Amino acid sequence: MGRGSPIPPMLRRKIVEQYQKGVSQRKIAKSLKLSSSTVHNIIQRFRESGSISVRKGQGRKTILDARDLRALRRHCITYRNATVMEITTWAQEYFQKTLSVNTIHRAICRCRLKLYRSKKKPYLNMIQKRRCFLWAKAHLKWTVAKWKTVLWSDESKFEVLFGKLGRHVIRTKEDKDNPSCYRRSVQKPASLMVWGCMSACGMASLHIWKGTINAERSECMFITYLGKGWHQHALWEEGKQAGEGRHSGPTGLHNNLANVLCQMPFLTGLGLALHPEAGNRTQAFHMIGFH
Fold first, then answer.
1. Could you tell me what percent of the chain has a pLDDT over 90?
2. Which PANTHER family does the record match to this protein (predicted)?
3. Which residues of 75-104 are buried (b: 16+ CB within 10 A; e: fewer)?
């Protein structure tokens, strides 16, 4: 029987009857399959009060019982993005009880749930998901040795911000309009496009671009630094995400790009075959016997 569950009155009577007959507490516990402490507590209460009734529970009852908590848990799982205030409004209408935000917050914790920040993940529509599946199915029988000839590349844009960027500030309630307590916000901050690649041999240095990167510019870069003959022995794969091919911007490379690429000796002889949705407009090369 679970901890805290009351012993049925019929079982209590059997314990008292056997005790009055002179049976030891250990034998009573063994015959009724109860713990010795449970039998001892029932007999001790019978000695003190002469009654076998369960003592009335002490303390204030919770406003939400177990059934209410199960309903609250189902609602929270169904509407995971709802705020505590929205859940409180729903709970007041559903349970017909006066509930505060703090009460609902504690009840959510009692339901073994907790408020977290959502994990960010790139959105993929059904077409992109199907392309991911077909790409994975096509490369399902690749060996480990073949995967080691893969060069993975991707690019990302980094916004350059400065000043007071912290999300939190230490202040009093009256200092909310103090300029020193503001958080700086820029509508279109300066940004850098950074490109990089990696393989089983290691990682290359990051390369800074001016403007955006698309499949044509990446192909031109590999032609420039790997020679014009590489494309005759390679398979070009690119990720066609939503909006790709409709980007504009300067096409010039950073002045240090040539020096950085020359420091990547593992590019020669490597293959590149990349997941079409692995990154933002990602390109891939599968080098077949290129030297």
1. 20
2. PROTEIN CBG27172, TRANSPOSASE IS30-LIKE HTH DOMAIN-CONTAINING PROTEIN
3. ebeeeeeeeeeebbebbeeebeeebeeebb
